[in-house]
Amino acid sequence: MAPEITAELKPLAESDQFRWLQKGYDDGDLKGRDMVLAATNDRALNQHIGMVCRNPGIVKKDELVIGITAGGKNHEKVKEIKRKIMEW
Fold first, then answer.
1. What is the pTM of this model?
2. Residue 82's Cα: distance from chain center in Å?
3. What is the distance between the alpha carbons of residues 79 and 75, in angstroms, rounded to a whole number?
4. Which single residue of 1, 9, 32, 84 could bond 5 by disulfide (Cβ 3.0 to 4.6 Å)?
């Protein structure tokens, strides 16, 4: 995923040697991901992505910060509720 790629990579993407999603990052892009590699040239964005990954029960949207917990008993439920809030 990237808004742009280098001229060297474009032919590889066009020949389906890898999949390029031509877009910028959004927190919703992490939905359902088991592994995330943040490798942008924007340090603040990389840190934000890392924070979102480390805080699966925290939703930040505009000026809201919402914490979700299942008392350490049901992490999947926390992810489900977080996903629903992020879609809202």
1. 0.58
2. 13
3. 6
4. 9
